[in-house]
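Quarterly update, task 2.4: adenosine monophosphate-bound model.
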Amino acid sequence: MSAAGGGLPGAGLLGVDEHLRECLALAVPLPPADLPLLDALGRVLAEDVVAPAPLPGADNSGMDGYAVRCADVAGASEATPVELPVVGDVAAGEHAAPLAPGTAVRIMTGGVVPAGADGVVPVEQTDGGTDVVRLRAEAVPGRFVRRAGSDVAAGEVVARVGDPLDPRRLSLLTAVGRASVRVRPAPRVVVMSTGDEVVAPGAPLRPGQVHDSNGVGVAAAALELGCRVTRAGAVPDDPDGFRAALADALGAADVLVTTGGVSAGAFDVVKAVLRDSGTVRFRRVAVQPGMPQGLGVLRGADGRDVPVFCLPGNPVSAMVSFEVFVRPALRTVLGERDVLRPTVPATVRGGWASPEGKRQYARVRLERSAGGGLVCEAVGGQGSHLVADLATADALAVVPEAVTAVAEGDTLECLLVGAVPR
Ligand code: AMP
Ligand code: MG
């Protein structure tokens, strides 16, 4: 790697970490709400869940078979079976009277092991008798008995604030007696694209127009996180039109994300209107792609603060800035704990240039090398309009601010946006 400039953000630029910190500071989880378990799928816990009782609730059989006193079947084998009278049946969930010495009960998986019994002989090792049973194996104390509390102890914390509610965790909460749970509600995210040239997906294009690929990409990324998303369509580059669209959006948003209109062009409407709001700041961040960024809070319909993230319009810049800045902020609003994507180190194949004083997020494809490590290779060009290359990238390779040239054999941390190759 060739380096210059000592790793500081370039002159007049704000560091990536500083901008991210400010984005995260705006991200406040919504007030918690109680939801029925199935409605809570994908939400994040806003309470610690304590098991009020042990699991299992009582010693029960792990097999269909016969509950016995182990001493009564000592020495039983194929050659020397032991016969015991069967004094009853215990179905799953049932209780039986204490087991008298020299007797057995037929018990099903999940049946409560009677007091006095200390072992179970599986039905496969018996003749299946209903009045008298021939037992062809010994019982080992405790074997095939699922002890009360062996899964969860009474008073145990089984899930904690910040745990995501996936099917397995919802199943556990049901097992410990819950029907509903306190969670962070999904935020309503409004995604607004700006630009006179931007038209709806599928609409016929006049020369110079583009389809709203940012709106769909950013909205899908927010949906994938579990947010409730509305795409506010394409808003023209005129201040009055933008203000009207903004008022609508704020009426229905917990978080607003805009794309376009934040750079130094003559028609950059987002910046022109929001710069004077007093609560939204625009800056140049030491990042490539995605240098112009805006962030702040606006007043929602009910007087609540609505965090606003203003991303640049170039499609790759919009998607990369969503990844690096907005995604962690939305995950914070969702109540999650580890909001940053994992990174993996990869060895560079080929090489490319990186601007001095900016942290570059280079689109790369990952591959496994013969030795088992990961190799990263730049996909196509790094121009911020190249949506086709972005779509095939597995990761964003993070090139530090000081580095001006990435070379074959360098190691870079890669932010995973796709799956890690096996
Ligand atoms: P801007 O940041 O508004 O100056 O836009 C920069 C570039 O991104 C221009 O070429 C725009 O046409 C393009 N662009 C802006 N918004 C979108 C969008 N929603 N979808 C696709 N391209 C866009
Ligand atoms: Mg524009």
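Highlight for this quarter: The domain at 34-55+151-184 is CATH 3.90.105.10 (Molybdopterin biosynthesis moea protein, domain 2).
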